[in-house]
Write a structure and sequence with these properties.
- The protein has 15 helices and 15 strands.
- Among the domains are: 124 residues, Rossmann fold, CATH 3.40.50.720; 86 residues, Alpha-Beta Plaits.
- 34% of the residues lie in helices and 25% in strands.
- The radius of gyration is 23 Å and the shape is globular.
- The termini are far apart.
- The chain has a six-stranded parallel β-sheet, with helices on both faces. Strands 9-8-7-10-11 form a five-stranded antiparallel β-sheet. A four-stranded antiparallel β-sheet has the order 13-14-12-15.
- The structure holds NADP nicotinamide-adenine-dinucleotide phosphate.
- NADP nicotinamide-adenine-dinucleotide phosphate binds next to helix 1.
- NADP nicotinamide-adenine-dinucleotide phosphate (NAP) binds next to helix 1.
Length: 425
């Protein structure tokens, strides 16, 4: 039988939101020639919507079964997931996974494992769920013409921000609603503090630009400090606030990358991304701008990406990590400037001398803000902007490299001019 008609015998780890979705979607897709032989779960007492003999709590029944040639790993425990995935690949099984935290935390080891075992490890569902972004970055943008990638990759935070704008809710009310509707976890820290988006961004950077980076090294934060006053400012200026993951190729071919709240213009495709949806905007040499949009979470949308990976396994598809292995990989830069808006209760908490330029300051009854340009390196090395009373939001098109040298030259003078003029203490 040719590889294009390879029959997939699946061992499924996890039968939660995603696992059950995979089970149901596969039942409706007989043409795929894929059957689930066994499902490994954690709690044997839970009621399952499937025949009892399908389930086990013994992972060996899947990992040691020679007939099972594919492991689909969709559990919610990153450490256990890494063990399962490593063992499966070592046992010559292909793997499909949706565990973004596991992939981000173990990317280096997973790259080595793929080279050592020559087995496929596909994880389209792990970033943007239903949006086919990883395989497009690998195959379609297989050249060095990719200029930038900007994305909303976390549905929970996008839902909360949408409700803060359109529903006039404050952050806590919007978070509560997200929890009630199942768009945020009971413990929402991974989402709202930006860790989840940074996890996804770390391996998307690998597929887009060949950068292998631990997400802890990225500059990122979430939406937890966004204030109602910030939403008012955005409304006045006809902006929206989004948690944007950005990667932009600079003039020296290095990449400026971060995950930070950002104001976006109404004409920006990312402004169109509402509620729990995700979106990715790619700018490349000749194609100009392209926009991917779709559901970034949920049982069936996530299962659909897993289905697509399974389908690719029928012809033994593997990520080649072309930007990493076949091109000269890019590296991250911190030699650029960001134009940012910072709101605060007291200017004493904002080291204004760190800004190269302060364009404006504004005092309101409840809260003040400034808009200024600061070196990314300074931001990377300081913590004041992570203070609970301070909200930092990147301005639209806020990445500034061309003027970096000029900004550096004028930095000292501008700060001296600005800080006394604008900051009555
Ligand atoms: N939900 C989404 O929309 C979505 C989207 C993209 C990616 N993901 C990722 O997909 C993965 C699964 O998410 P989910 O929402 O489906 O989680 P979930 O609903 O909490 O389900 C997790 C499943 O994993 C099982 N499990 C946990 N530890 C296990 C172990 N050591 N061995 C075997 N089974 C184990 C649980 O077993 P019990 O049933 O016995 O408790 C449960 O069935 C996560 O990594 C998540 O980040 C989720």
């Amino acid at each position: 039988m040719s590889d294009t008609h390879k029959t997939l015998v699946i061992g499924l780890f996890g039968f939660g939101v995603v696992g059950e979705g995979v089970y149901k979607v596969l039942k409706q897709t007989p043409s795929l020639k894929a059957t689930i032989k066994k499902v490994c779960i954690k709690n044997p007492e839970k009621e399952r919507d499937g025949p009892a003999e399908l389930f086990t709590t013994d992972k060996r029944e899947l990992l040691d079964d020679a007939e099972i040639n594919v492991i689909v790993e969709v559990i919610n425990d990153a450490d256990a997931a890494f063990e399962i995935v490593s063992e499966a690949m070592t046992n010559k099984k292909s793997v499909v996974s949706a565990s973004k935290k596991m992939i981000a935390e173990h990317l280096c080891e997973l790259l080595i494992l793929q080279q050592a075992t020559k087995m496929s490890l596909l994880y389209e569902a792990a970033a943007g769920a239903s949006i086919p972004i990883i395989r497009n970055l690998e195959e379609y943008y297989d050249n060095d013409l990719l200029h930038s990638m900007r994305a909303i990759v976390n549905g929970s935070t996008n839902f909360i921000l949408t409700k803060m704008f359109t529903g006039n809710l404050n952050y806590f009310q919007a978070l509560l609603l997200a929890k009630q509707l199942g768009f945020a976890e009971t413990d929402p820290v991974l989402d709202v503090e930006g860790h989840d988006a940074a996890h996804k961004w770390s391996f998307l950077l690998t597929h887009a630009f060949g950068i292998v980076v631990n997400h802890h090294t990225l500059v990122y934060t979430g939406i937890q400090r966004i204030d109602a006053g910030d939403a008012r400012f955005a409304a006045e200026k006809e902006y929206e606030i989004k948690l944007v993951a950005e990667a932009k190729k600079m003039e020296n071919d290095m990449i400026a990358a971060f995950v930070l709240p950002q104001f976006v213009n109404k004409t920006d495709p990312l402004a169109f991304v509402r509620d729990e949806n995700n979106g990715v905007v790619i700018e490349s040499g000749f194609a100009d701008r392209q926009f991917f949009y779709g559901k970034g979470a949920g049982s069936f949308p996530t299962a659909s990406a897993i289905l697509s990976d399974l389908s690719a396994l029928r012809y033994d598809y593997k990520y080649e990590y072309k930007k990493l292995y076949h091109h000269a990989p890019c590296s991250l830069s911190n030699d650029f400037f960001l134009e940012v808006y910072v709101s605060y209760d007291s200017v004493r908490h904002v080291p204004t001398e760190q800004f190269a330029i302060i364009r404006t300051t504004h005092r309101r009854q409840d809260r003040c803000y400034l808009i200024g340009t600061i070196s990314f390196k300074t931001l990377q090395n300081s913590t004041w902007w992570r203070d609970p009373d301070i909200s930092l939001i990147v301005m639209p098109d806020g990445v500034n490299h061309a003027a970096a040298a000029q900004l550096k030259l004028s930095a000292h003078r501008s700060v001296e001019e600005n800080k006394y003029e604008y900051f009555p203490r």
